[in-house]
Amino acid sequence: MTFYDGIYPFYPLQRTSFIFSTHLLTIILVFLVFTVSFLLILPGIRGKSRLFWMFRIIISLFIGIVIVALNFTSDWAEARATTNTTYKSFSSEEVNAEVGLHIGLYGINITLKGNPVNQLNETINYNEMFAWKDTIDEEYGNALERGLPNPILYIAEKFTLNNPCGLIYQYRYSGRYASATLWTAFCCWLVANMLFSMPVILYAGYMMVATAAFIFFSMASFSTIMNLPTCLFTIGTSGAFQTEYSGSFWLALATGVLCLIIGVLVVLLDCLIPGKIRDAFSVGVDNDEDEDVYFGEGYLNSNFLAGVTTTPLTTLVLPTDEIRKVSRQPSLQELSVRL
Description:
Distance between the termini: 117 Å
Number of strands: 7
Mean pLDDT: 77
Strand order of the largest sheet: 4-3-2-1-7
Shape: elongated
Low-confidence stretches: 1-17, 285-293
Number of helices: 10
Order of helices and strands: HHEEEEHHHHEEEHHHH
Radius of gyration: 36 Å
């Protein structure tokens, strides 16, 4: 019944599974380069401020990489089940495997791992990505041509346009709004970092609060799918299973709370001890009135004194008003003596 080296009939193409998001890998590498670059300049910072700067850089870059990476992760919600199910079409043979559905903002990730991995003379370890794009129907058609296992095709079919569940509309639009608010939070984070290097620490705290607010808005947008009628997934003998919030959702919550705490602390400290908070961030406002201006030593060219004669001054006793007038309008003789 089989040919093409163990592949069932009508499926001549070998599978190429989704392993790791290249977008996510690029983001991680870029932020790692920034982290290493900032850490290299730490030895040039003297005193106790070195620890503060290191802590500030690590926390700030952590918030930035989380906000960007959350757009490309595939575990905002997930569902898992271990079941006995048919493996391929045109065959009644069953396998024991763990089926997983992982939902992100830009698509779904379906996993199938055998228990044990080697069954039916084949390694059962699939990890397939289906992006929303405009529709998922094209990718579902490609999956049919590649001959993916029945559990993967069954779950992917639930997200097609013609499926009565309508999951594509729920998850695609909620993911778009969540992604848009996350990118807005990233912009607020950039503005906050620029304001932290200026003597406007109060507004930097406000922008951190705004960053937290937009992260919470993205979570609220994604949470709307939980308020709609759910579509149950039934595979093999496991019964029905539903999706629940996963790691990325809780990571977004933790990052939002962290941004909120930082923003509120900065605003309170700027109102209570503005001088110390500016010293901590190495920023301040220059005040020329409180500073003594020192121009250094002056030198006079003796050539300008050639031919200048001086006459002795006579001591005069003048009234106070006259002394003021003389002090305000010095005579030519006094000027010559001063020179």
